[in-house]
Write a structure and sequence with these properties.
Helices cover 81% and strands 0% of the residues. By secondary structure, the chain is mainly α. The chain is built from 19 helices and no strands. It has helices at residues 2-19, 21-59, 78-97, 100-107, 118-132, 134-153, 165-168, 175-211, 217-237, 239-264, 267-289, 300-303, 305-325, 332-340, 342-364, 369-375, 379-386, 391-421, 430-504.
Amino acid sequence: MVFYMALVIILLFVIWGVLMPDRLSEVANIVFQFTIQQFGWFYLMVMFGFLVFSIVLAFGKYGNIKLGDDDDDPEYSMTAWFAMLFSAGMGIGLVFWGVAEPLSHYLTPPEGIVGGTAEAARTAMRYSFFHWGLHPWAIYTIVGLTLAYHQFRKGRKSLISATFYPLIGDKVDGPIGKGIDVLTIIATAFGVATSLGLGALQINGGLSALFDVPHSALTQLWIIVIVTILFLTSSLLGVDRGIKILSTTNLYIAFIMLLFVFLVGPTAFLLDTLTNTLGSYVQNLVQMSLRLSPFSQDTWIGNWTLFYWAWWIAWAPFVGTFIARVSKGRTIKEFILGVLIVPTLVSFVWFSIFGGMGLHLERDKGIAIAQAAQEDVTSALFITLEQLPLSAISSFIAILLIVIFFITSADSATFVLGMLSKGGDPNPGAAPKLVWGVLQSTVAIVLLISGGLAGLQTASIVTALPFAIIIVGMCAALLKSLREEDRHRRIRERKRQRKLDELID
């Protein structure tokens, strides 16, 4: 029932987008504006709360509880585990926004700062760290941890609805649970479609820069079709032969590209940028987390911060489910620190090198990358690479990186959607994966046709709001379950101690 309900709802959306793309764009924009104006405060509060909750859990008394039986060992090595969660988590986005976002903030910074100044450059880097740092990974941590705990520790299905058992009991198998699972699938489909659309735009930008391929909706459609065939092939191979190999390969390619730009660029400047921005990020973390603009009516936060928070929330069921699937045997503390800290640091390094390189070329070399990026956001990375040695090779590697990130993200999402729509089956068959693979690519095409980048952003924010409420409930359910387990543990220890005392006596 969950499979068919979600399928029908998403198909109706696709039909609407094909028949009346302008009307779809208009309605989605109205809902978007309402969501931002009325619930912006809610997004900021819950995102900050998820981060605090994650840190408290990691260093609290529940940190040593295993996600599985007490004698279970991790299923995957640390390298393979990290590669899979990172590729699923935000691979395409980092490549897409690594140069473009800092440059965009440089021209139009928040907080009333004058654009094009040194202060604007520092603020641009700080907010790039903010949008790609601890907050998104806290979302993934909460969802992934809750799912892994209930699946491997409690033996429940790998479904978002199953995590609510401590709160609503057997009702998870009724209409409430089915509704949660349907909403999860819809949020996942739209969240991933957003990233697939971004990936198609970026690949088109790279092909245009290298081979003068037209930058058009038709080109992007063909890119999505070709990559869909590739990721469906990978999906049918399974986790070990498909996603694991591609994710590990992509991690090495990303590292080589990062190292190349770091070494041929202004190395000392990039290290200074990382150090300064990291300090500024830590110093202003709370202020940025809770910043709105009720007095100035500034739209910057809605267009950037709230978009990102909604995007991460929409991605959370997919990434969380996938991370849970590959995290059996790790302790709660190990899981949280691995998911929260390590990818955040990698994101910081990525933005410092690519964003710092873009700002260096813009400010010190007089190359107008920022203006070009405002006209076409996909051009920022390739204009930057053109200024470096071996630009053709590095641009080709960048395209390859985007394509593999595209494949691994869509592959992981197809796998997760198959799990969700088949009652939490950890190894869904080929048929549901094929259906969801084709459907999420179709949604990406519809969103691109109906509104381009703005349409992709709008879809994320609209679908994320109800799921944010679900994640709050997941936090409450996890905490209740952990407290119950701790209570039973203390009872067992007291009984064991009484038996020992009786034997001694």
